[in-house]
Amino acid sequence: MDKQKKSLMDRLTDFTNKISELLGRFANTDIISSVVAGLVSVTPIIMIGSIFLILYVLGSPDVGTSGKPLIGFLAPWATKFSWMNSLTMNMMSLYCAVAIPYHYGQKKKMNTLTCSLLGLATFLIFTINGYDEAGGILVTAFSATGLFVCIITSIIGVQILKFFLDRNITIKMPDSVPPNVGNAFGALLPFATIFSLAWIIRTIMNFDMVSWLNTILEPIITSSDSLWMAMFVTFVCLLLWSVGLHGDNMFLALFTPFGLMWVDQNASALADGVSKYDLPNILAGLGNTGLIRLTVWTAAVWPLLFLMIISKKKQFRTIGFTALAPGIFTIVEPVIYGLPIALNPYLMIPFILSGTISSGIGYLLMSTSFFGKFYAVVPWATPPFLLGPLGTGDVKTALIPIISFAVGMVIYLPFWKVYNQSIDAEEQQKLEEASAAEMIQPNEA
Fold first, then answer.
1. How distant is the alpha carbon of residue 212 from its chain centre?
2. The whole model's pTM is what?
3. Read out DSSP for 45-79?
4. pLDDT of 231-280, one tens digit each?
5. Which of 1, 101, 185, 255 is the most buried (most CB within 10 A)?
6. Strand ranges, E, within 221-373
7. Max alpha carbon distance in the chain (Å)?
8. Do the beta carbons of residue 267 and residue 89 sit within 8 Å?
């Protein structure tokens, strides 16, 4: 029986390691890691914009059906709060056009300031084609709508710059010229080439890549916000965690561009008067915040914290109380590696099942008009019972972590009982072996 369990465990570990190796290679490529790092860099800007959006919701009489603001004294400032959100969250692609080429240039060991300036200018040239009828410029591409174009222009721009620099196709200045001046003149030829290409494509050819790309990707993006996607993402993340790998960093982070686009669409719909219960995207914020963080750890880790704290075994109570405070803020490593869950044949299965099933149930609940949808990005370490109300403006979303916790308890209880019995059996075996050893020693004497 032990050999069979060990064989099953080995097969599961080998399978997960193969997946993790492929995902690890993909996630650690210069392009993907630079995109993820760039998105992480602009997260503070997005979060601050989300805070002002929440203030707008609280002070605007146009949000909701009562015709009155939730907090009256904020009403005179509602429009100004909305404007602040427009300058931060609604311009995330503009900020990413600085951050992504910075990190990509860093990976390629290039001048990061030069890469950032190149990325910003190329993005602007590539997305703006003259003035509109009012004499201004259209900035719709500055929001999450232009995020994929921002990624493309950032990566290709830096690659072209590197091509020129590697082949010394630059204007060379005498050694006596200060390095900063030399770098500026050295970038003239590649900058001119890249800017000209961007200008020809957008202005001369009148090709709007933002609209074209969004049209191509819309079916994929729309279909990705689904029950099966929520459960699939959760399953893979927890499978990686179960063998000791950081599933969130390796897999969940790859979905950040989708999550940011969805939360931006929800925020825009809310500003246009759509009810928080009828916003279009359920998985808004995926990768940073949102439904997954609302359900997974409350089902996969919180039940274990409770079971350890009420356990009669001292080692479990010690781990439970030690990991309680971090666990409330969904910092789960103390439980995953301290209990452990990772590579534990008794707890791996309920760990994966509880989080995956609860994410599916959470998706179904939030897809109804009873719960609000996420329209704001809240820090990932926010306790789930606060994360929902803050990110959705709906206090009722605090019920979802409670439901997830109950689901996790039901799944864990039989496995936890068997796990405790296995520990009792091991302790009894050790006592018997120790007792036998004590009996043998006098006989030998």
1. 26
2. 0.80
3. HHHHHHHHHHHHHHH-TTSSSSSS-SSGGGGGGHH
4. 999 999 999 898 888 888 878 888 888 898 899 999 989 888 888 999 99
5. 101
6. none
7. 104
8. yes
